[in-house]
Write a structure and sequence with these properties.
Layout lengths: L1 E5 L6 H12 L3 E3 H15 L6 H9 L3 E5 L4 E5 L2 E2 L7 H11 L2 H18 L2 E5 L2 H5 L5 E6 L2 H14 L6 H17 L12 E4 L5 H14 L11 E2 L5
Parallel strand pairs: 1-6, 1-7, 2-6, 7-8
Antiparallel strand pairs: 3-4, 3-9, 4-5
Helix pairs in contact: 1-9, 2-4, 3-5, 4-8, 7-8
Length: 236
């Protein structure tokens, strides 16, 4: 059973993917974390963020590890825990450069598919999960929200992590990401064919979750109950 959740930054993808995965008892695949950890590694190594060949090797290599659970994805870079660090505005401001590189995207989509074959039952979120990575998913969602709503959510997340940022800066960062994500040549952000669109503006997490669960029930999806973390490369 594969359920994909796509949408722009701040639309609630990560929150809802975690919530839905937890309710269904299956792993949650945060593909954004993969692009973020590659970006963090590139920044730390002082690499040119336009060097597709070197960054693609980094993306497909073993410098980072991910552990998947129904409520979170644990990310380690060269043995160091970076699950929170990859969410910083510094990393967010550079990830779109890395995500636009064809070689990087090809490497990470292939890695996502390999992980998917091992997990078998999971909820995955990103910007091309239902359109590129898993076009034959059992159920596809596309979440959206107004720029103002998304900026306010992102600001709250960053401030809770200790980042001293302003709403104006966060809003501009999201606006720029929207533009680059939608216009890039490889894996652009778009509503996947057959995806159920949910505007999360003004909706609580519980309301969005109830809506998604209703669609899961209508689709007749009944995954086996799974708990605990699933390291990359293992089969639950």
């Amino acid at each position: 059973m594969i359920i994909t959740i796509d949408g722009p930054a701040g639309s609630g993808k990560s929150t809802m993917a975690r919530s839905l995965a937890a309710r269904l008892g299956v792993p949650y695949l945060d593909t954004g974390a993969m692009y973020r950890v590659v970006t963090l590694a590139a920044l730390e190594d002082g690499l040119d963020l336009q060097d597709d060949e070197r960054l693609a090797r980094l993306a497909g290599g073993d410098a980072y590890e991910l552990e998947f659970g129904p409520t979170q994805v644990r990310v380690a870079l060269r043995g160091r825990e970076v699950s929170e660090e990859i969410r910083s505005l510094r990393v967010s401001s550079h990830t779109h450069y890395v995500a636009a590189l064809p070689g990087v995207r090809a490497a990470l989509v292939e890695r996502q598919r390999q992980i998917g074959r091992r997990l078998r039952h999971f909820v995955t979120e990103g910007r091309d999960q239902g359109s590129v990575a898993f076009p034959d998913a059992d159920l596809k969602f596309f979440l959206d929200a107004s720029l103002e709503t998304r900026a306010a959510r992102r600001l709250q997340d960053l401030q809770s992590e200790g980042d001293a940022v302003t709403l104006a800066r966060v809003k501009e960062n999201l606006r720029m990401r929207d533009e680059t994500d939608s216009s890039r040549a490889v894996g652009p952000l778009r509503r996947p064919d057959g995806a159920i669109c949910i505007d999360t503006s003004g909706m609580s997490v519980a309301q969005v979750l109830d809506c998604m669960l209703e669609h899961v029930a209508r689709a007749g999806l009944t995954p086996p109950h799974q708990t605990g973390g699933t390291p990359e490369g293992s089969t639950p």
